[in-house]
Amino acid sequence: MNRVENLQMAQSLAQEFSSRWKGSTPAKIPLFLFVAGFQGAGKTTLLEILEPRFGLAIISLDEVRQRLFDDGVPFSEDFVDIVDLTSDKMIKKAVEGNRSVGLDTNAVPTRMARYRNVLQQAGGFKYHTLSVFLDAPKEELERRVQTRQRIPRLYRGRVEELRASLERYGEIDRTAYDLCFDAFVLTSDEIARAVIQQIKTNLGK
What we know:
Layout: H1 3-18, E1 31-36, H2 43-54, E2 57-60, H3 61-70, H4 77-96, E3 101-104, H5 109-121, E4 128-135, H6 138-147, H7 159-169, E5 179-182, H8 188-203
Parallel strand pairs: 1-3, 1-4, 2-3, 4-5
Helix pairs in contact: 1-4, 2-8, 3-4, 6-7
């Protein structure tokens, strides 16, 4: 594949996934919510709780990855490029519609800075951003990845990939995030309530 083909595939995927934003409507003060953490941390579950509350347009990189795997695209530099391009185009679509966004990603601080830059380049200067990191012990993350059921369209993940990510990124700088939660001790509902309260505080509501 070449760059033009990557762009074409990313455009098609972005159009398909953004068409599912049925519950997302223009917001007076749009929110850009980063939910980060390793595989098994509970990112998707948390966003499922928050989505109807804030009318979030969900951007799930795992969903993009799974679609590429289903289409027979092998993991490669092109694969990574298509995932990045698709997420960038979805962010742009959300900004064009003044929609609040929930980004489901394992983004480390450097990647999070990249997405902030994409948001700004798309014209999202009025967005209120909030970054959340979900933490859990390695053993618990591995258990969740091994036992969680397959969710249609979402990449289930593998323990080997989780271990590789943990080894690659090592100790994450939790201070780079606005909020950090122990997803082993707290339930998704408890974390969601804390996030909602923080958003209300930040917006003066």
